Write a sequence for this structure.
C-alpha cells in the first residue's frame, strides 16, 4: 500500500479504471478512488469500457464515469481497480498502453497477474472497495458520506450482502464504520437489490427454467441466450445474481452460468461459483483452463463456440475436476 501512495505522490493527473461490465465493486471503488486522488491534491478522471448500468446510476457522481475515448488527454499514471489482468479493462487497455505511463494495480483477485508498475494485490480483501477504504485511512484523506456510500456498495455487492466467504470480521468492521457516515443499510440494500423491472423478472423466469443438475447432483447450470434477452427486453447487466439460484440447490458443489455474448457471435461468457466449507472446488483453476480466472469460489471465462458445444466442453471439464479432488 505504501508503494501505491508513493506512486500517487509522483503524478499530477490520473486515469482511474476498472473491468468491463462494471458492477458494484468496480464502480464503488473507482468513484471513491477518484475522490481520494482529489483529496490528495491530484486531478483524476474515470474512463471505463462500458457505461454504468441503469440500476447503479444512483451512485454518487456516477455521471462522472466516462466512456469517451476521444477526449482523454495526457495523464501521468493509470489506477486499475478490480482487474486480474490488464485485458479486463477492455478498450481502456489501449488508452493506457498508448501513453506508456506507470500502472497502479489495486486488486483482490487471487489470479491477479501483477501487470502493474506497482502491484497491490490482497486476495484476502473482500473487495477493491475495502482496499480503497484502507487507502483513505492510511492517507488521512477525509471521507464523505458519498464516498462511504460508494465503498459500502462495493463491499455489499462483492460479498453477496456479507454472505460469501470473503466476508470477515474486518469486512463487518469496515462496513460498520461506513454506516457511521449516516448511511441506512436498509435503504442502500433496497436501492441496490429492489429496483428490478418486470422485464428482469420475466428474464429470471426463463433463465430458471433452464436449470439442470448433473447425475451426481453436484453440478448445476443455467443459461441466458440472446433470444431470452430479445423476448423479455431485460437488461443483462442485472443478471449478476442469477447464478446463485443454481448454487443454492442443496448438494450442489459447482454452479455454472452460460451467457451468449451480446456483441460477439459465437462467444459464451461463463461464470462459476463453488460451494462448501474447506472442500469447495477451486473454480479459479477451472476458469484458468479456459483462459479466465477470478477467485477460488467465484470465477469466469469466455469460450468461443456455440452454446451447445461450449456447455458440453465445460461441463466435462468440471466433472473431471470434481473427480480429481
Ligand atoms: Mn471485486
Amino acid at each position: 500500500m505504501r508503494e501505491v501512495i508513493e506512486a500517487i505522490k509522483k503524478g499530477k493527473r490520473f486515469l482511474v479504471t476498472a473491468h468491463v461490465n462494471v458492477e458494484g465493486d468496480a464502480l464503488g471503488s473507482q468513484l471513491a478512488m477518484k475522490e481520494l486522488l482529489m483529496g490528495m491534491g491530484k486531478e483524476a478522471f474515470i474512463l471505463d469500457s462500458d457505461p454504468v448500468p441503469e440500476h447503479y446510476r444512483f451512485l454518487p457522481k456516477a455521471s462522472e464515469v466516462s466512456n469517451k475515448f476521444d477526449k482523454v488527454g495526457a495523464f501521468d499514471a493509470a489506477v486499475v481497480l478490480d482487474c486480474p489482468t490488464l485485458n479486463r479493462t477492455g478498450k481502456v487497455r489501449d488508452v493506457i498502453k498508448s501513453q506508456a505511463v506507470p500502472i497502479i494495480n489495486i486488486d483482490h483477485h487471487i489470479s491477479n497477474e501483477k501487470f502493474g508498475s506497482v502491484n497491490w494485490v490482497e486476495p484476502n480483501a473482500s473487495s477493491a472497495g475495502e482496499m480503497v477504504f484502507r487507502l483513505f485511512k492510511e492517507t488521512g484523506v477525509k471521507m464523505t458520506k458519498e464516498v462511504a456510500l460508494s465503498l459500502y456498495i462495493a463491499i455489499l455487492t462483492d460479498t453477496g450482502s456479507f454472505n460469501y466467504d470473503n466476508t470477515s470480521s474486518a469486512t463487518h468492521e469496515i462496513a460498520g464504520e461506513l454506516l457511521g457516515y449516516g448511511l441506512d443499510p436498509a435503504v442502500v440494500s433496497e436501492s441496490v437489490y429492489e429496483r428490478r423491472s418486470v422485464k428482469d423478472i420475466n428474464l429470471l423466469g426463463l433463465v430458471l427454467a433452464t436449470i439442470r443438475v448433473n447425475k451426481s447432483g453436484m453440478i448445476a447450470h443455467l443459461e441466458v441466450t440472446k433470444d431470452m434477452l430479445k423476448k423479455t427486453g431485460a437488461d443483462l447487466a442485472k443478471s449478476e445474481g442469477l447464478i446463485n439460484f443454481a448454487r443454492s440447490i442443496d448438494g450442489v458443489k459447482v454452479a455454472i452460468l452460460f451467457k451468449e455474448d451480446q456483441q460477439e457471435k459465437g462467444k459464451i461468457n461463463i461464470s462459476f461459483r463453488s460451494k462448501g466449507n474447506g472442500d469447495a472446488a477451486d473454480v479459479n483453476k477451472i476458469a484458468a483452463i479456459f483462459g479466465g480466472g477470478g477467485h477460488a469460489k467465484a470465477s469466469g471465462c469466455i469460450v468461443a463456440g456455440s452454446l451447445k458445444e461450449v456447455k458440453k466442453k465445460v461441463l466435462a471439464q468440471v466433472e473431471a475436476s470434481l473427480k480429481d479432488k
